[in-house]
Amino acid sequence: MGKKVLSFHLIVLGIQGSGKGTQSELLSKHFKMPYVGVGELIRKKIEEKTPLSNKIRTFYDTGQLLPDEVVKEIVKEELEKIPKDQSILFEGYPRSLKQLKDLEDILNTRKIQKKMAIVLDIKEETVYKRLEGRRVCSVCGKIYYPPESLKLQNCKECGGRLIQRADDNPAAIKERIKTYKKVTNPMLLYLKSKGELIQINGEQRIEEVFSDIINKIKLVEREKN
Fold first, then answer.
1. Is residue 176 annotated as a catalytic residue, yes or no?
2. b/e string for 27-40 if b means 16 or more Cβ within 10 A?
3. Which is catalytic among the residues 72, 130, 134, 135?
4. Is 95 a catalytic residue?
5. Closest Cα partner for 199 from 121, 93, 114, 89?
6. What digits encode the pLDDT tens for the residues 180-221?
7. What is the value of pTM for the model shown?
8. Which of 110, 142, 165, 174 is catalytic?
9. Is 134 a catalytic residue?
């Protein structure tokens, strides 16, 4: 059973393969929060086949971060669809100190401005193992990780063909890890210094990760209210 919406926004972070998409879906349902998956928004933009989408694809397929101003516009456009008095769950955004400032600027135009970030920590070897074996439904976008992904050819939800994403190759994965350390880690340290970061062991099973997150959010709620 879901509960009432939180009095602050949630930001779910972690390197690709950390399970942030899975946890974001679970948290969105549990807290009845609108779910803004920035990675999915970007992938939809790529499919539009516009000059902007071609530019985005070049960055995306090589594991590089998109220019901040492009991401900010995509996020602003999406948030205009959500009532200003609702708290929102952001997945995979922001990824840098500059993007964090951009998000804070956007949130300052809304009734709810408080936020709390959750980061799912996993080892580098786990990143390679999960991403090289990851498969995505070509129709509905559902993601499957090994060992399950290695046993399936079609999506269990809609029957769509499972494919490997262009950026799930060793070279792009290595670049993402390098970028994450250089760009995202400083932002995480900043959030931690402000008391706005919850750190979670992402090596656990899905249900254990979710349980840890819920328990820590309950503590934050008591402190904020």
1. yes
2. bbebbebbbbbbee
3. 134
4. yes
5. 121
6. 999 999 999 999 999 999 999 999 999 999 999 999 999 988
7. 0.84
8. 165
9. yes
